[in-house]
Amino acid sequence: MDYIEMNDVERSKLEEKTKKEIKKLFHWFNESTYLKSAELADEQIKKQLEEIDVADIVCYIVDASEDYIKVSCDFENEFLEGDNRSGKFFIWGEARIYQNLENIISMEPSSNFICENEFDDLECPEDYSRHLIRHLHINDINMYPGTFYYSGIVSEVSSDVSMLIEDMKLFNNVKVMYIEDNEPVWKKHISTSYRLYNGKSYQLAFLMAFIGFDSLIELMNETLKDVYLLHENEMIDFQLKEYNSAFWTAIKIMREQVLVAESYKRLERLENPNRKLVEEKLATILQFTNSWENSKCKKYIGKFLFFEVIRNSLAHGNDCDKSYIQRQTYFGIYKKGDKNDIDFDKLYVGLLLSICQLIEDLIK
Asked: Considering the entire predicted model, what is its pTM?
């Protein structure tokens, strides 16, 4: 052994500080919110991947906030069935939210539109929708540009109200799930990944989610590094103030006590930027936070290594290195039907579930 082992008191103190800081990073997490896919049989995992509410788990992972935005809905119109005497119109249009789309995870237009008179200057204009809107439906939602489309039938006249169609102003209260501007970059990548997923760009969604996962590991590594750096500074201050000058010098203390201490060796490991993302950095985080043995860490990170192989294959453009990937343990879970291809829809959801499980396992 080329270092001086920590005693039980020092080890417990560091583990306690590490756990505390990791919990601060994920203060909104609850215990076992989602099923632990690692403990299920392949068929059960496949079923879970199909049933999970993807927007819900993304919002949970990034601690999304909820808001309602009143969106103006412009429209075009024509007389219903060409009858200009009916006072009924077929209308259609497109509306857009203009908030910072980088921070918005999902948008959900209301099924009920608001109809106001353009010349109503009251602070809270009256809503005539129940009188004049016959049918008005959301036809499509496109998350990436923040647009939604609608069509339906409105009337200029009802038994209680009349209003010219050119005086009508339509609005929709759109529910948005979002993150704040000052959130860590890993949350922004995960949020962006869902907009790609919602647009059925599953490979890009997976790649963006993995970039978020990468950023998350780096953030946790920096958090642990700060804990150990503070610990080492405290230890150096103590050693240099308390050493017996009859037997020690400051240089000798540094060489034979500080720089060969297990805690310092751990700090050196955390400061090394050239370690492999999953195999070394993630394993180290698990080991230092949960006090897991190397064998347990190695087993745990297996699914993340599988995700990493696919991410690297996509990034390097080698068609996912199919022959190698097909031999991996997790391939059967994410296989697309009877084909020997990856189902990136399920792979994306699997990565999210695994990130969620990782965080839950770290904060216990």
From this structure: 0.86
